[in-house]
Design a protein that fits this description.
6-stranded parallel beta sheet, binds 6-O-phosphono-beta-D-glucopyranose, 42% helix, binds magnesium ion, alpha/beta, globular
Length: 220
């Protein structure tokens, strides 16, 4: 294998929107008469909007019709977008911009592979729309992670073989998606949680493309 492209998850890798999702889902749960914890929110990482709603309703023991589900999901998204609209470029996670710059200089393809239907809006808010050669998000996919669809579409958009791609992910389901797609996976977060990742980093400030690629190719 050669390392020719990097595919990045958005939420939790480029920017930390989990707190905004949490606040919006918690409001939804509270309005439906139950509470929702940060621990439960952890389990929604990488999970699509409608699948997240299904899980939350299950935890709260609430049954809704399909139409009601659509209405609550739309309400949650409005609350979430109120936070997103306040986002600034300062919210890009430490080291991310420098890391992407070094990939550009090394001639590595860069794509986004996110479950979010709000990905473009978020990238616009943090001034990073131009940082990616391709953007694949929840508006392009029909299957959620751990299905590899989002990353396979990313590799295709960059005209690269999956075996030459590296995925950066903070969710267990995202690491599995990368591997199912035949790609390497770098976990961004805790090594205790991301046990299946090929390499785990806690932040982009602690690594460099040279160091990571050596590790992934087994040279270190
Ligand atoms: C993922 C997040 O990136 O996107 C999930 O980790 C979220 O928490 C999913 O549910 C879908 O996001 P959106 O913006 O389409 O509701
Ligand atoms: Mg994520």
């Amino acid at each position: 294998m050669a390392l020719k492209a990097c595919l990045f998850d958005l939420d939790g890798v480029i920017v930390d929107t989990a707190i905004y999702h949490f606040k919006a889902w918690r409001r939804l749960a509270n309005e439906l008469g139950f509470d929702f914890t940060e621990h439960q929110n952890e389990q929604l990482k990488g999970v699509s909007r409608m699948e997240s709603l299904e899980l939350i309703l299950q935890w709260g023991g609430v049954t809704l019709s399909d139409e009601e589900k659509q209405q609550w999901a739309a309400r949650k998204n409005e609350w979430y977008l109120a936070y997103v609209n306040q986002m600034t470029p300062q919210e890009v996670l430490p080291g991310v911009r420098d890391f992407l710059d070094s990939l550009r200089k090394a001639g590595i393809g860069i794509a986004l592979g996110s479950a979010s239907k709000n990905a473009r809006l978020i990238l616009e808010r943090i001034d990073m729309l131009d940082a990616f050669d391709a953007i694949i998000d929840g508006t392009h996919t029909t299957k959620s992670k751990p299905d590899p669809e989002v990353f396979l579409l990313g590799a295709q958009a960059l005209h690269q073989n999956p075996a030459d791609c590296v995925v950066f992910e903070d969710a267990v389901a995202g690491i599995e998606a990368a591997h199912r797609g035949g790609m390497k996976a770098v976990g961004v977060g805790s090594p205790e949680v991301l046990t299946e990742a090929d390499v785990v980093i806690t932040a982009f400030t602690e690594t460099s493309w040279t160091k990571l690629s050596d590790e992934l190719l087994g040279w270190q």
